[in-house]
Design brief:
By secondary structure, the protein is α/β, with parallel strands linked by helices. The chain is 57% helix and 12% strand. The chain contains 16 helices and seven strands. It has helices at residues 3-9, 13-17, 21-32, 36-49, 69-82, 101-109, 111-115, 130-146, 161-167, 182-187, 190-195, 209-224, 248-265, 267-294, 298-310, 316-324; strands at residues 57-63, 87-92, 119-124, 151-157, 172-177, 198-201, 236-239. Strand 6 (198-201), helix 12 and strand 7 (236-239) form a beta-alpha-beta unit. Helix 3 packs across helix 4 (36-49) and helix 3 runs antiparallel to helix 8. The longest helix has 28 residues, at 267-294. It is globular and about 70 Å long. Residues 69-70, 106 line the site of magnesium ion (MG).
């Protein structure tokens, strides 16, 4: 086959299963595309690859801007590949203002990991609905699993809803926090603390070490006040320094214990089953909405109704009924 016909044929399931990185990258591009023919090809591929997915440990990771996420992933990813693991890093960034820039920044901050043959770094393009971003990230995760990556790290910037979307894709959620403690703790939404299975205090080195220890105690205290997310796991706080490569083994050990506890209790299976049915209904909702707004005049009617609702002239429920029951 010439290169050109190979390109036309697109990535094959066999290539991806064999761990061919180019095929993996191209399959993810297909899954991200908005073109219906690309989507159809991606869906065929995913259907074929589905039996080879699900074996990775799926870890979500978030934290406020500048907390050290990229540096942590660079060190931790390198630690894992050093242990013979294959690590995929997916970055979710739904805020369009930060797209591109942060991704380019990350590629340079994750320079070593980006060159590691046992690591694969891929940003998920922002834009569209959060449900759409989550769908593309799930597809990318499944493709990485089929290609043999056995740890998937999904990073998101700690600014709100995206953490929830990432927690809905993963087995475990790591919240990265800085050595600031108290003050920073105030800024972290309670709902996000509730998602955390592990609180990773970053930059616990040099002059920052005493502050990092205090921060760890603060977060430990805060976790005590939160209702446990799981019956089989109690959230832990771990001090790390990505720069000094410290605390990485402890984080990996905690991830392993968490994974065993959830697997043995059956909680992991039910967690993933629940995530899948939720993703199914999200796709149904988005599909219905897309179909509705594709119908002639529906968009303009929706815009008029929305304006009336905003102006207090109509209740939201009545407006929705007018849109759904409009004469065609
Ligand atoms: N002392 C110390 N500084 C660190 C450590 N990890 C990261 N930093 C510094 O913290 C700053 C932010 O690190 P990043 O890894 O870019 O943080 P981030 O969370 O990815 O930032 P955004 O992507 O902008 O949200 C950089 O100046 C790093 O050098 C660490 O382990 N120790
Ligand atoms: Mg970063």
């Amino acid at each position: 086959m010439t290169n050109e016909t190979a390109a036309k044929a697109g990535p094959s399931a066999g290539d991806i299963l064999a761990g061919n990185r180019r095929a993996l990258a191209r399959a993810i591009t297909l899954a991200e595309s908005s073109r219906p023919d690309h989507r159809a090809r991606a869906e065929t591929l995913l259907a074929e690859l589905l039996p080879a997915t699900g074996k990775a440990i799926r870890v979500g990771l978030s934290g406020p801007p500048g907390v050290g996420k990229s540096t942590f992933i660079e060190s931790f990813g390198g630690y894992l590949t050093g242990k013979g693991r294959k690590v995929a890093v997916l970055a979710v960034d739904p805020s369009s203002a930060r797209s591109g820039g942060s991704i380019l920044g990350d590629k340079t901050r994750m320079e070593t990991l980006a060159r590691d043959p046992n690591a694969f770094i891929r940003p998920t393009p922002s834009g569209g609905t959060l449900g759409g971003v989550a769908r593309r990230t799930r597809d990318a995760m499944l493709l990485c699993e089929a290609a043999g990556f056995d740890v998937v790290l999904i990073e998101t910037v700690g600014v709100g809803q995206s953490e929830v979307a990432v927690a809905d894709l993963t087995d475990m959620f790591l919240l990265l926090v800085g050595p600031g403690g108290g003050d920073e703790l105030q800024g972290i939404k309670r709902g996000i603390m509730e998602l955390a299975d592990l609180v990773v205090v970053t930059k616990a080195d040099g002059d920052l070490l005493p502050a990092a220890r205090l921060a760890a105690a603060d977060y430990g205290g805060a976790l005590h006040l939160i209702r446990p997310k799981s019956a089989h796991w109690t959230a832990e706080v771990i001090l790390t320094s990505a720069m000094a490569n410290q605390g990485l083994a402890e984080v990996w050990d905690a991830i392993g214990r968490h994974h065993r506890a959830l697997t043995d209790s059956g909680e992991l299976a039910s967690l993933r089953a629940g995530q899948l049915s939720a993703a199914f209904w999200t796709s149904v909702r988005e599909g219905l909405l897309g179909a509705l707004l594709n119908e002639p005049d529906a968009k303009s009617l929706a815009a008029r109704l929305e304006a009336d609702v905003s102006a207090g002239k109509l209740t939201p429920a009545a407006a929705a009924r007018l849109l759904l029951q409009r004469p065609s």
